[in-house]
Amino acid sequence: SYVLTQPPSVSVAPGQTATITCGGSNIGSKSVHWYQHKPGQAPVLVVYDDTDRPSGIPEQFSGSNSGNTATLTISGVEAGDEADYYCQVWDSTSDQRVFGGGTKLTVL
Amino acid sequence: QVQLVQSGAEVKRPGASVRVSCTAAGYTFSNDGISWVRQAPGQGLEWVGWISGYTGNTKYAVKFQGRVTMTTDTSTNTAYMEMRSLRSDDTAVYYCARAGGEWYPHEHWGQGTLVTVSS
């Protein structure tokens, strides 16, 4: 089965840039979606199809995908960005949707 | 606006079954599908499966095949997820999410339903 690997945690000071990676075999050939998940709330889609943002998601969220790594970048991090972030792909080989293990973003 | 409203919390004994509902509003239900995703306490998000609102075709995560059934009722714009032979490690918050196709991103989510499995 296809596996997505994320770092368990990332810490960043307010105003700085957070980079969250998502590793997978030839992930650059897949479409990657990213979700923000805060405790007690439903997840929120922040980036889809590698680089696109849904309406209402600020420009501070951006994504890229190449080779074996997809990346979510959050610029000008604020306290309100503290959350768990998950990458997700559809693996056509196994016909399964796969989530990464999640990364906890801490704003120092 | 798009809304997905799920049924309330459930408490079940090990070995029992549970059915969670998800009622959609604000879009044409039969044009899109519904995914089910769960989060166990202290764990990450886990995909359970997807059902087409148009054809009723389903795709289930390998882990749940044989134990989960997803259905829809287009007359009430409602999707259902039934899980059988519940175990304690099925204790989780279960979310429904709108997904046009099985590979589409989940832009709209339900509020979540806590299912507790305990003797």
Topology of this structure?
The complex is a heterodimer of chains A (108) and B (119).
Chain A: E1 9-12, E2 18-23, E3 33-37, E4 44-47, E5 61-66, E6 69-74, E7 83-91, E8 96-99, E9 103-107
Parallel strand pairs in A: 1-9
Antiparallel strand pairs in A: 2-6, 3-4, 3-7, 5-6, 7-8, 7-9
Chain B: E1 3-6, E2 10-12, E3 18-25, E4 33-39, E5 45-52, E6 58-60, E7 68-73, E8 78-83, E9 92-99, E10 108-109, E11 113-117
Parallel strand pairs in B: 2-11
Antiparallel strand pairs in B: 1-3, 3-8, 4-5, 4-9, 5-6, 7-8, 9-10, 9-11
Secondary-structure element order of chain B, N to C: EEEEEEEEEEE
Please, what is the average pLDDT of chain A?
97
Total DSSP helices of chain B: 0
Which class best fits the helix and strand makeup of chain B? mainly beta
Instruction: Name the chain pair whose interface involves the most residues.
Output: A-B, 26 and 22 residues
- Main β-sheet of chain B, in a few words? 7 strands, mixed
Can you walk through the features of this model?
The complex is a heterodimer of chains A (about 110) and B (about 120). Chain A is globular. Chain A starts with 8 loop residues before the first strand and ends with a strand. Chain A has about 110 residues and is mainly β. Chain A has no helices and 9 strands. By secondary structure, chain B is mainly beta. Chain B has no helices and 11 strands. In chain B, strand 4 and strand 5 (about 45-50) form a beta hairpin. In chain B, about 40% of the residues are buried. Chains A and B meet through strand 3, strand 7 and strand 8 of A and strand 4 and strand 5 of B.
